[in-house]
Amino acid sequence: MPTATLSAPTAAAPASVAEARLDLGALFADSEVPQFLAELERDLIGLRPVKRRIREIAAHLVVGRAREMVGLTSGAPTLHMAFTGNPGTGKTTVALKMAGILHRLGYVRRGHLVSVTRDDLVGQYIGHTAPKTKEILKKAMGGVLFIDEAYYLYRPENERDYGQEAIDILLQVMENQRDDLVVILAGYKDRMERFFESNPGFRSRIAHHIDFPDYDDGELVQIATAMAAGADYAFDGEAQAALADYVRLRRGQPNFANARSIRNAFDRMRLRQSLRLFEAAGSVDRGQLSTIRAEDVTASRVFTGGIDAPSGPG
User: Fold this and answer.
1) What is the CA radius of gyration of the chain?
2) I need a surface site. Which of 2, 64, 131, 311 has the fewest CB within 10 A?
3) Is the CB of residue 269 less than 8 Å from the CB of residue 289?
4) Phi then psi dihedrals of residue 85, to 5 deg
């Protein structure tokens, strides 16, 4: 069996290659994609349908390379994507992992991620938008451009808005330089749907639509526990029970943002733990310094019916 790699093949495959049998498992392993998929599984709790779609895309790209190696028509795949879902559901993290997968498979040169919003692309006066957008595209070339809340690019109610200029430039690059740049548009599902209806050029260039579900309560507790472990903290038994109550109550409040809200809450729990130890003014050991207790959780305003605002102390 000839040695196979995932690099791009020549235009015409010789007969020996066309007749070869390829070990897809070996190709997949050599690409290091299994490592990225394992990291995705390890680093992200839940999101089963998202992980399944990413695995399908990776498998399709490996098979596409294998087809080219034996002389079958494959064609350049369209890799632009849309990630839809509520805030804090892992869209940026998955985009970063996707950039690594595409790089290992040879579909992007550098494998880096450039994350932007409307303000990074759209100018405030005539002649300002084109250079801003082109500069961002220059930085993103060879990798992945992630545009969060992409629907804000289009503001038809404002006749003097320059978002359409940025859109036109993006569409041109997405079509003409798709072998050197992958664009991922992200945002709320309903707003993204309206955005695509108003900008059919984007819809026709997006090959993969991936919806990110909200985390359930158990998954959010797991996320908080993992965040704590990653920062050398742990919830004691009573704090773990209080955390489950916190998640249930916080979900019902305005501006809930899944894992993002849990990260903000954990940061405030650490602040309360620090203040508790500081005010005790006694000697402490490693266990005390690393333990979150129930009182560090239940001091949140959530437990008294208040709003746990991201910027507030609650």
Assistant:
1) 24
2) 311
3) no
4) 155, 175
With CA atoms as reference, report the closest residue to 235 among 183, 270, 190. Answer: 270
- Give CA angle at 81 (64, 77), nearest 5°: 25
Where do we find the tokens 């859109």? 167
Residue among 130, 67, 74, 77 at smallest CA distance from 101: 77
Please state, in angstroms and as integers, the Cα–Cα distance from residue 87 to each residue in 67, 134, 249, 277, following that order.
38, 27, 18, 33
**Which among 45, 86, 46 has a CA at the least distance from the CA of 186?**
86
* pTM given for the model: 0.84
- What does the DSSP 8-state code read for residue 213? P
